[in-house]
Amino acid sequence: MADIETSSPETTALQQLLDNHFPTLESLNMVDDLLRGEEETHSILEEELRAAQTREAELEKEAAGIAEQIRTESLKLIDIHSEIVGGSADDSVSAWQFRDGTETMELVSKLAAQLKTYERLQQSKNYIDIVIDVEKTVEQAKSSISKDPQGVLAACTHAIDILAEHVAAPDLDRSYADRPSNLCTYITQSVRSMWEEVEMAAGASQSESLTKLGWPGNIDMSSTSTVVEFDSSFSMLLNLDRIMRDAQKTLDRSGIDLCKGRFAPLPLEYMARAVDIRMRYHFESSRNTNRADKPEWWLSQILTTLRNIVPFLEAHVQWLYDATATEHLDIRNQFILLLLPIVRRKLLHDRSEYLGAGMIVSSVVRELSDFEHTLQEVYFFDGPSVLDEFLSDSTVFAAWVEAERTSAMKAYMDTVAEPGAFDPVYSDDVLGADDARPSRVSEKAVLLVEDIAERYSMVPSCMLKLQILSTVQFPIIIALVEDVEAEVDEFSRISLPFIRDSTVISPVASANTTTLQSSFIMQLERLASWYQTVWHVEEAARDWNNSAVYVDMWAAVCRRAQKLGDGVDPRDWRDGCDSWSAEDQMVLDQEQPDLTSVTDNDDWLDGGIWERTIKTLGDLKKRILGLVSTAVNKEVVGQMRPYRKKNNWVVPGVDRVDIDISSEMGSVLPELSVLVVSLSSMLPYGAFVRLIRLLADELDTFLTDRVACAHRFDMRGGLQFVADVGAISRVLFASTARNAISSAPQRSLAKSQECGAILSCATDSTSSPTVGSNTEMSLSLEEWGPAIMDATVDDREALLVLAKLGVSHLTVKQVLQLVRNRSDYAYNSVSDAP
């Protein structure tokens, strides 16, 4: 106990340590074993140290001996040289005065061998010094990571200097030219390992501080210590990045790639990793949020992240960077550049699904366009376009185009196959008289074309737009035209020849007449539906031709045509669009702010992308209207045949009473009225007017040639003819048929009215036509007839006379025939008897 009490404090501390940590005998035995092991290790190390020291002493002694030997041999060589050269009196000493030189050559060989050994020893010593320098630098960097940022930076800078001096020097002297490759590999690997460890430690520190701040969500900068921690790690990474970029040539020559594809400062790279990890977790894993058909999900997430962190980047990170870096950098723009690889990788990740379901590509294009528009307009981003890069993948673009084409054609063919595909979609009271009345198929075709245009309007490349237009949209209109033409051809071949060309109308046959009329109206409705179908698409194509997207396309093809030469018609652009080259794309995608400067010839301004389509539709529309006119004229003329055969225009002995329309005409007018009213409801205003005028011309010619000039009349018969012509004119041009059409004289049956005026003209001044006969002849036949019937009067003079009488549409021959047909007027002339 006395010994314990008088023991030193160190002994007491040791005893307490043993009592606390080694209370049992077994634990003390373990300590004893451990101590013996350590003593053995210490002994081994001491032996190795003594052997190394002995070897070092031997090498030093050997080196000193070699140096002394070299000195001695050198002196001997000098003596020999002096003996050989100095003992000669002149240059003509004979050869026998010299020794054979064998001893000299042996000395030189020994000297060379010793010198080589010495150089190897010196080189080995230099290598050891280099290794020791590298080890010290690495150890300094590792020990200073957490406590001495400046020491870390100094160590990294020195490591770069070592690389520059011993590995990457472009003009090494001969003493270092043959150093072993394993030494260079050792230096390179040590520097790379040290750098990666330092960078990883600084990056982990920054990531930890960012996590505390709430990155990459809503940033909370209320903790000052966390902000200071972030600032320190940010500055460390930024300085490491500066050292790395300043030594880029040295690193390249050494075969060290510290950038690893990075283009932004290191701290920003590490800041972007947190966003990247979150995006991978949600949108590239097996979670439900990873859906290729929902590009808006992950693009909106990136925008939400930007909205949360941009204020922090602009207010704090930008200031921190400017305080450390020597060159200005827009942190916001640079960070967005770091987020674009996330977008590219996600697009590549979903590429297989895009190829399998091409319609998804249209959604991706739309969302990417909106995404880039937000970046540019809200965050003033001026970097590359991911949308352009995405569409440059020809396989993905082809999958989209093919999906659009297949979907559109299937939708169109399904509509055509439905019953009543050409039936109007809207009732008559919905649209005005001047509006096209779309059928189901025409409305579907127009909607398909417009929907496709809306989907690809986001595509930046004009050449790609033109390819979609040529491959997807044009075939829809072509298919529509071909279907309508097939219907029209069938009607022309089968239905039109069987339209009745002879029908006897009688009051007792009203039921049969109604059946025939109903059948004919149905045929007209078919033609009218085709006309309305084509007209609706034509009107839509005219609107498309003036829309901005197609105007830009037209300007592009005109630029290309101008570049190819004056003989190239821009309307022929579709002929070679499948083999467009990169040069063509450059011309087509060129921005052209002033469209009038595309070419000196302004004729192209009157055209457009849809110009030939409009012409094709217009020609088909004219053909259909021609068929309607032919069918209507044939039908009406067939109904008028009983009237043509009427031969009771001269009724002797009948008193002159008020004249009403004839019974034959009275049987025709109801069907004609129904036909006109039906046409007015089937066709648009312009087409209806043209059709009625064509019908009026046909009837005018029929009444003139087949009735008025083919029968004999007295004045009463003429008045009857005038009444019938007036009745037909009122049916054709009555305001009740179409409010917009008036019964103006210029739209009446001009020749028939003039025929009626001549046939109802009074024979002499004592007779006069019935009151209300609408005749305009102010002179009787006796007063103007001789001037026309006189053979000595030429046609020019006769026309002047007729013009004074108001006759301007009939020929002189027709007037002569009409006068001759007047049974109550006889022209007696000596020179020309009637």
Structure description:
- The protein is mainly α.
- The chain has 5 domains: 2-83, no CATH class; 122-254, no CATH class; 266-392, no CATH class; 399-614, no CATH class; 654-663 and 708-820, no CATH class.
- Helix content is 69%, strand content 0%.
- It has helices at residues 2-5, 9-21, 25-86, 102-143, 149-166, 174-177, 181-213, 224-246, 248-254, 266-283, 295-324, 331-349, 351-356, 359-378, 386-391, 394-417, 440-456, 462-495, 510-545, 548-564, 582-588, 611-639, 641-644, 663-682, 685-708, 715-733, 750-759, 781-789, 795-804, 812-820.
- The termini are far apart.
- Mean pLDDT is 81; it is low at 1-6, 88-101, 172-177, 501-513, 593-598, 735-746, 770-775 and 829-834.
- This is RAD50-interacting protein 1.
- Residues 35-69 form a coiled coil.
- InterPro entries: EXOC6PINT-1/Sec15/Tip20_C_dom2, RINT1_Tip20.
- It comes from Coemansia interrupta.
